[in-house]
Request: fold
Amino acid sequence: MSTTLLIIICIACVLLLLIFGSPIYLCLGTAGILGIYLNGGLAGLNLLQTTVFGSVSKFTLVAAPLFILMGEIISRSGIGADLYNAFARMLKRLPGGLAVATVVASAIFGAMCGVSIAAVAAIGGMALPEMLKRGYDPRLAAGSVCAPGALAMLIPPSLLFILYGEVAHVSVSKLFTAGILPGLLLASLMCGYIMIRVMVSPKSIQPKDKGLKTDQEEPTILLIKRLWAPVLLIIIVLGSIYLGIATPTESAAIGVIGAYFVSIIIYRSLGWKGFLATLEHSARVTTMILLVVVGAIIFTQFLNLVRLPDMFANMIVSFHLSPIMTLIIIQLMLLGLGMFVDGASMILITTPILLPTIVAMNWDPIWFGVLMIANIEMAVITPPVGLNLYTLAGITDDVDIETILKGTLPYVLVEAVGVLILMIFPQISLWLPSLMK
Reply:
């Protein structure tokens, strides 16, 4: 059987299983096993057990369940409400101040949990009703909740950076650091879009109350004081990585302890049942992700056997396109794929294929990793597999999915501008990693 026919059969197997609604890990694993068997018989399959076990038992991957657990604790603690209230007070005089506050709160929340849907749920549950009550256009309100939640993917600690670092064999610590400035850039662009939209179209807000009421709420100074705990948590986790004091795995463990301390001692919002619930939910999410990792490893093993990554790299190079045009084509391919595949699966599937191309084009894999994650941010706010869209629709009855979609789509263009800036100026991503010890 020719290599081309074998590749076509396995890709068709993946697509067919996806059409029938099979989980992504089953699609990848089944196609990979079929391809390996057709290529090398049972002898090839015998090597899988060693390959799979060796890949999922690495120390770096331990950071993934720890950061998931940390995000679960934080999402249950009430920190999201405090973040939103504080920034809503401080930024209320800006055009679209509540929406801008939502972006800022989402970015900071993302710096603690690293999970986009958690940021949407935690901030959105508080911010969306408040904006609607203040007369914000439902589309403006929904978009300012849904899109900024995706910043958790890029602003460290990020689960996707852990997966990319493991597959691409680059430092997770440097990837975390590389995501800081791009995350701030995208957050700034979103804030800028909101303010410009409100100034150009004042009817986006029909104020029922021009400011937040103060007689029934805590004074601003008290809200600001309550932010010391989450800010300290961010500094401890990211600072220990940046200064080289701890590895991402060790900092994740510190973050879990700190998150429990904040939730139980400071916020007093996590009882025994809540504690058990965080463990149970984190275990479920971790199991799901590891199953995807295993399926992707099996499929990657098949791709390496038929040398598809090298074939793809040679094909790209043979086109003799400029580096920027090549990069744009790859980003468009990733955006299209991201509309149908979740972020973790996309990284695990595409990174092994694209890595030889990255090397052939002399691109920095850390910079490319930032571009890939930024691209995935657009994917989670575009249908049909826009997880943030469905998360927001699932936590509120105030807006329907059509309104959420219309409000979020402009942010795809905003993020596209951000990705273009990151492509043209790689140092935005690479400057901080270059300063690390």
The chain is about 75% helix and 0% strand. Confidence is low (pLDDT under 50) at residues 209-216.
